[in-house]
Design brief:
Blueprint lengths: L10 E5 L3 H13 L3 E5 L2 H10 L4 E5 L7 H10 L6 E5 L4 H9 L4 E4 L4 H14 L8 E4 L2 E4 L4 E4 L2 E3 L3 H12 L5 E2 H9 L8 H14 L7 E4 L3 E4 L7
Parallel strand pairs: 1-2, 1-3, 3-4, 4-5
Antiparallel strand pairs: 6-7, 7-8, 8-9, 10-12, 11-12
Helix pairs in contact: 2-3, 6-7, 6-8
Amino acid sequence: MDMDKNGDEIKILVIEDDPVITEFLSTGLKYEGYKVTSRNAGRAGLEALQDGVFDLVILDVMLPDIDGFEVCRKIRSRGPDIPVLMLTVKREISDRVKGLDSGADDYLTKPFSFDELLARIRALLRRSGKMRKDKRLQAGGLVLDLETRQVTRNGKMINLTPTEFSLLELFMRHPRMVFTRETILNRVLGYDHDGGTNIIDVHISHLRNKLGDRPPHLIRTIYGTGYAFYPEGKGV
C-alpha cells in the first residue's frame, strides 16, 4: 500500500468523464493502495476538492461543463499546492504548453500505459514530499532496479522486454496478490488494447523462461483466476 511519509493513505481525485478510463484508473490505482475518489465533470471535481483533502489530482482536459484548463486555473487560484496531472487526447505542443501554463504539474496524452501513469504519479508525489523514492525491488533472489531498469537473479543479469519488465514490477510490488488476466492486460498493455487476454499467458511464459522460474514457481498460476507472485516460490 502506498503511504505518505507520515504513514497516511495517499488520496487521489480523478476528474474524468469517460467511464471506461475512470474505471481503468480507479481499479488500477486501488490495486496500488491509493484511495481514489472520482468525479465526471469539472464543477463536481472542484466541489470534491472543496469538501475533501487530496494528495494529487488526475484531470481530463475534455470535460462536459468546463474544460480541464479552467478547472486547473481554479485549483491554482485557490492556493493549494496540490500536484495536478492532466490527461488529454490532444498531442500538439501548444496544448501541452496551455496545460502547463494553466498550472498543471505534468501532462499525459491518451492512450497511455498504466505503468507510465504510475511513474508520473510517483514522481509528482516525491516532488511534493508525499512519497519516498523506491529504487529497487528485491524478492526471491530477484533484484529489479527501477532507475536502470536492470533485472538480476542471484547476481545474473536478465534481459527483459519492456512488457516483461512491467509484468515483473507489478508482481514484485504486490507479492501474493492474485491478478486476473483482464487486470494484468489493462495494467501492462493499457485500457485501449484490443487483443484477447491470451497474450498475457504468452508474456508470462516468456518471463518465466527468462527468469528460470521452475516449479514451485515464483509466478504462480491461480487456475480459473489469473496469476500471483510468491517470493519463495511457494503457494499458500
